Amino acid sequence: MRADGDSRPVKKNSIRIRTAVFAAGHSCVDVYQGAVAALVPFLVAERAYDYAAASGIVLAASLLSSVVQPLFGILTDRWPMPWLIPLATAAAGLGIALVGLDPGYPATVAAVALSGLGVAAYHPAAARLVRTALGGAGHTAMSWFALGGNAGFACAPLLVVGALAVPGPAGWWLLALPAALGALLNLPRSAGGPGGAASADTPGPASRAGGENWPAFLRLSLVVVVRSVVFIGLSTFIALYVRERGGSETAGAVALFALFAGSAGGTLLGGRLADRWGRVTTVHRSYAAAVPAIAGLLFLPLPLVYVCAALAATALYMPFSLQVTLGQDYLPTRMGTASGVTLGLTVSVGGLASPLIGAAADAASLRTALLPLAALPVLAWALSRRLPEPCPAPEPAVPEAAAALPKAGRPDLQA
Fold it and tell me: Would you say the pTM of this structure is higher than 0.90?
């Protein structure tokens, strides 16, 4: 506290630190969602899995995560469980490390499923805690939290390539290091959870904003599902697609890195555009921009595939944190449930379509199988145009909280 008794700088620094801890912890978890896709080329090459079998690996993580994640959201709405966050982080890393044991395809699927269960348990509890513990920081904090997850996604291909370059089981256990770090970062340090002193039951701005809007939330959920099918489809098969067009294994990893790196920039860009256009307008314009980017990825020459991959991910991730806070504002008394659907399904349910894409690729070609992914954003655009913009929440009790973070989509500025 300053000599004049003003504690504002201390509070601002506290919020910055807590936001950084939340984002870093999210990065340590989402690296394992990216790792599943990054492992697909290795499993195809080293274990002779066909496209459909490799898609089943993605399905194991995605199906469990998409089905269970909303259930964890319901549980966190009823009982605060800050201890669940580090436990889920550890499970996510352990599952991926156990893939290296290679006792057979069923055991590999079970190991990936364990990782998916950890991811499912983490997201609703963590997203709810971000919105409640940081109070008026609201959407700004969620943008940085989402950015942390995107950074984990982006680093996953490089982590997998580097770790598997180490011979023997040691390489696989290196993949568990982010989980160990994340579990430490996510340890509850107080009632507020990671790095915070706020109570997990403290109502955030969304919980004071008014009643629930289930029709809008269900429409938003459909948008989230469509977006998930597109992004998971691209992330699962883009490395294989580059190799099919004559690129090397390293070139495939670079394309996957470009896809994930573009997602990080899209998250922050979406928050800034929401300041100017509002969240709903930003969401549907983002999906419109995704169509030409995905088409370019499929039809332009190989060097431009990297650029189009980054642009496609940017467009698909601009709505990322906006959809989470929209869902929380549509269901202000069920933020865990809203987070489990919007944040969880965003990165998981698309895996349900991966076996269909893999089967189509086996029957025809990978480009043919990926063609529908260029058209699906049109459906997301049409659905999101009819979403209502929630009314702004009342000013938080500690107004300096929102000013403590870089401006990336303040809810009080959204019409």
Answer: no
